[in-house]
Design goal:
By secondary structure, this protein is of the alpha/beta class. Among the domains are: about 210 residues, 3-Layer(aba) Sandwich (Rossmann fold); about 90 residues, ANL, C-terminal domain (GMP Synthetase, Chain A, domain 3). About 30% of the residues lie in helices and about 25% in strands. It is built from twelve helices and 21 strands. A nine-stranded mixed beta sheet has the order 4-5-3-6-7-8-9-10-14. Strands 11-12-13-15 form a four-stranded antiparallel beta sheet, with no helix packed on it. Strands 20-19-18-21 form a four-stranded mixed beta sheet, with no helix packed on it. β8 and β9 form a beta hairpin. α8 packs across α9. The longest helix has 22 residues. The radius of gyration is 22 Å and the shape is globular. It starts with 12 loop residues before the first helix and ends in a 7-residue tail after the last strand. The model has no long low-confidence stretch (mean pLDDT about 90). Bound molecules: zinc ion. Zinc ion (ZN) binds next to loops.
Length: about 450
């Protein structure tokens, strides 16, 4: 769910500047004006889906749904919800016939449910992503060219010559990537050293990584690390975590919610409001059937307004959100409406025998094909169990690749067992409390 911005992929200056200028203005539009924008974009994407996407061509015909007749955002509800299962089963017919003209890239996520899903993201969607982040970060004072630090693993796993390095700095993008695989209390001075050297104004990471980093610094006793702002992403940020991070880094945490399929984006403003970015996609909240007046919790249903190669309409993201009981308007005066709490991903960390704290080991399932479902269970300090549901295409090579990537994370000492299971066994677990990573070991502050 964390999204890596690779500036190379976004080098389309005219389109970027145009969208950037629009988003700068549109955040102050009234909600009515923003919804008119959504309706116009929706008509475009629905017509495209009808003309070019075989799955929607036959679905709309069956429903006698004509995109030309759409006059309000409510008309979208005439289309049934798109589950991850439907995406998996209809993958080929969900790809637009003219997808190539949008430069699509195949992407994979295991999401919060552990079930793998593949989809295409394209150039218009990348341009949106770039401009969305630019606007969101600028709420915290970011300007293009500012040095920016972030915890990440992807770079190090794909540049194996650097896997034992604590950081990678790109002088062109001014991006300082801190190696999450080496994250331990013993290595803390190495992280402080590179941050001191490059002096980034901002720090970004998973809520749990930022929190544990702050705890490490607290335990160490002395650090002068401070930032203009810290960006928390990819996981649910608990208020007690936020307090520790803000205290240690002497700045505000800006929290956000997004997902790899890019249908909705929620980001926190300087006044603490969680804003739904209406220009990004259409977010509906499907009320839980058993929820009463009090709970007001619902599932996030998202419709992408910018991804043409594989448009996802009314996509069941798999995360829950709380509807805001009070005003949906923010004191910052932005027209983007507010929501309450986001119940996103919450994972345990794996603690390795050499004391490293692996907060994002769940990403292994985004790197190995042929896995339908994956879960990681740390039984004790020295033993990890991978629960895997294979796809038909899973082979001996898939297993070798999986084990090699897990070894990159955990090192040579841990025993790794694979428990091949089936989806029925997995679904016996309560999906709301489901974790991709379950650990019996906790990092000890003392
Ligand atoms: Zn606000």
């Amino acid at each position: 769910m964390s999204v890596d911005l690779n500036f190379r992929d976004f080098f389309h200056p005219v389109s970027i500047l145009k969208l950037r200028r629009f988003l700068e203005k549109s955040q102050w539009f009234s909600q009515e004006k923003l919804q008119r924008y959504q309706l116009n974009r929706l008509r475009v994407i629905l017509s495209h889906a009808y003309e070019n996407v075989p799955y929607y061509r036959s679905l709309f015909s069956e429903l006698q749904f004509n995109p030309q007749d759409v006059t309000s955002l409510d008309d979208l509800k005439k289309i049934p919800i798109l589950t991850k299962d439907i995406v998996r089963k209809n993958f080929n017919i969900l790809i637009a016939r003219n997808a190539k003209s949008f430069n699509p890239v195949l992407t994979r996520t295991s999401g919060t449910s552990g079930e793998s899903v593949e989809f295409y993201l394209d150039r218009p969607s990348n341009i949106l992503e770039f401009c969305y982040y630019w606007r969101y970060w600028s709420w915290a004072g970011y300007r293009i060219g500012d040095t920016f630090a972030e915890f990440g693993n992807f770079y190090f796993l794909t540049h194996r010559e650097d896997i034992h390095k604590i950081h990678h700095f790109n002088p062109f993008t001014k991006r300082l990537i801190l190696n999450g695989i080496l994250f331990s209390y013993e290595n803390i001075d190495k992280y402080i050293e590179v941050i001191d050297k490059h002096k980034p104004l901002f720090l970004k990471g998973l809520a749990s990584t930022l929190y544990i980093f702050a705890l490490f610094l607290k335990k160490r006793g002395q650090s002068n690390l401070s930032f203009k702002a810290v960006f928390s992403t990819g996981e649910m940020l608990i208020e007690s975590q936020r307090a520790v991070i803000e205290e240690v880094f002497q700045c505000k945490v800006f929290d956000s919610y997004g997902h790899m399929e890019r249908t909705v984006a929620i980001s926190e403003c300087p006044n603490g409001g969680y804003h739904i970015n209406l220009e990004y996609g259409i977010m509906e909240i499907e009320q839980q059937k058993n929820s009463n007046e009090e709970s007001r919790i619902g599932r996030i249903i998202g419709t992408s307004l910018h991804n043409f190669s594989m448009p996802l309409l009314r996509y069941d993201v798999g995360d829950l959100v709380e509807i805001k009981k009070e005003s949906i308007y923010c004191s910052c005066k932005r027209g983007l409406p507010l929501i309450g709490k986001i119940h996103g991903r919450q994972e345990d960390s794996v603690i390795t025998p050499d004391g490293r704290v692996l907060t994002s080991i769940y990403m292994i399932f985004e790197l190995v094909e042929d896995i339908e479902f994956g879960q990681i269970i740390q039984k004790d300090k020295n033993r990890l169990v991978l629960r895997i549901v294979k796809k038909e295409s899973y082979s001996a090579e898939s297993e070798t690749k999986l084990l090699s990537i897990v070894r990159d994370f955990v090192g040579d000492i841990m025993k790794i067992d694979i428990d091949y299971t089936n989806i029925e066994e997995i679904k016996k677990q309560d999906s709301h409390k489901f974790r991709v990573v379950v650990s019996n070991c906790k990092w000890d502050m003392n």
